[in-house]
Design brief:
ph1033 like fold, 6-stranded mixed sheet, alpha+beta, binds zinc ion, two-stranded antiparallel sheet
Length: 331
């Protein structure tokens, strides 16, 4: 039976939360884990040590009021976002730099299930809100508490009038249903009623059913706002472009030109080469950060032009994580 752990992330740590979400890792300072979050008699390190693969790890951020308000006010308040994750790697130590402001060497690996928000405290339940408040008042340590009804948390994001769900309580199936609905709405917003769509990568025009409304920054790594903004969506045809971009065989450079990222073997190489040098028609000042993220994610941080976000850390971190996974050890 999976257990539930709650972590409150302060507003000023929002950037760290985005990094953690992207890389699937969360961490604490060692001295923070020596603290107790009353009334749990265990140290926070013991709580962190008790987390096992598959346990739910709920990260909640921002909202109002903050955790230092009286309990009844906090419980009735609103959280900006809740990221539902599961532990993929139990507590381990690493001094490798992941976050810009501190090392946070006591870490866990995470798999993001979904994110929702803003969420009213009443929907999350008193137990979970109390756990989050204790975490928020104890430097963000993990706090164990009762399960929260994730199904209703995820489902109430949807309009109740939509087609009824036939679910067996399987959370993955639920998330998949939600993803498909989201995709349907994004397609509608992006493509409208058009029947012919031009692919933003290869420039070919084709029936709308052969074109995906594809996320530039991957859905699982994007915040809720990033997931739903059309600036993060491009038309990518299913005749190759969507898959080549998603798997990082191609990326878009800082001038909006398509580049090959890695050698695609066999005939996939021809497909990649036929795209390189083309201008990506989804590239704009507003989609730029998403393309930059995607490029860095696949090992090609932009190095030109002033004023762009520095995503070099992302490339470094991904390389290290991949190397460690290849070698079968913790990063
Ligand atoms: Zn295409």
């Amino acid at each position: 039976m999976a257990r539930y752990f709650y972590v409150y992330v302060a507003r000023y740590s929002r950037n760290n939360l985005e990094i953690g979400r992207s890389l699937g890792v969360w961490g604490w300072r060692s001295d923070a884990l020596s603290l107790h979050s009353k009334p749990d008699p265990r140290s926070s390190r013991d709580v962190a040590r008790s987390m096992a693969v598959g346990d739910f790890f709920i990260l909640a951020s921002g909202g109002s009021p903050g955790p230092r308000t009286p309990q009844e006010k906090f419980v009735a308040g609103t959280l900006s976002e809740i990221i539902i994750t599961r532990i993929s790697k139990p507590l381990y130590r690493s001094d490798r730099r992941v976050w810009p402001d501190d090392v946070y060497p006591e870490r866990v690996g995470l798999t993001v299930v979904d994110s929702v928000g803003p969420v009213n405290g009443q929907r999350l339940g008193v137990e979970a809100m109390q756990a989050l408040q204790r975490s928020g008042n104890t430097r963000g340590v993990p706090v164990a508490a009762e399960p929260v009804a994730l199904e209703s948390l995820i489902l109430t994001e949807e309009e109740p009038s939509e087609d009824p769900l036939d679910l067996d309580g399987d959370l993955d199936a639920l998330v998949e249903v939600r993803r498909r609905r989201e995709q349907r709405r994004l397609r509608h917003r992006k493509f409208g009623l058009r029947e012919q769509i031009t692919c933003d990568l290869c420039g070919r025009s084709m029936p709308v059913r052969l074109v995906a409304a594809a996320h530039i920054k991957r859905r699982a790594e994007a915040s809720r706002d990033e997931r739903l903004t059309l600036e993060n969506i491009m038309a990518a045809c299913l005749l190759g472009c969507d898959a080549l971009f998603e798997h990082g065989y191609i990326h878009v450079d800082s001038a909006g030109v398509i580049r090959a990222s890695q050698r695609a073997h066999g005939n996939a190489d021809e497909a990649t080469r036929s795209l390189t040098g083309r201008r990506c028609t989804a590239f704009s000042a507003r989609s730029r950060p998403f393309f930059e993220y995607h490029a860095a994610r696949h090992g090609h941080p932009w190095t030109d032009a002033a004023g762009h976000t520095d995503y070099a850390w992302l490339t470094d971190a991904w390389t290290l994580i991949r190397d460690a996974e290849d070698a079968g050890r913790a990063p």
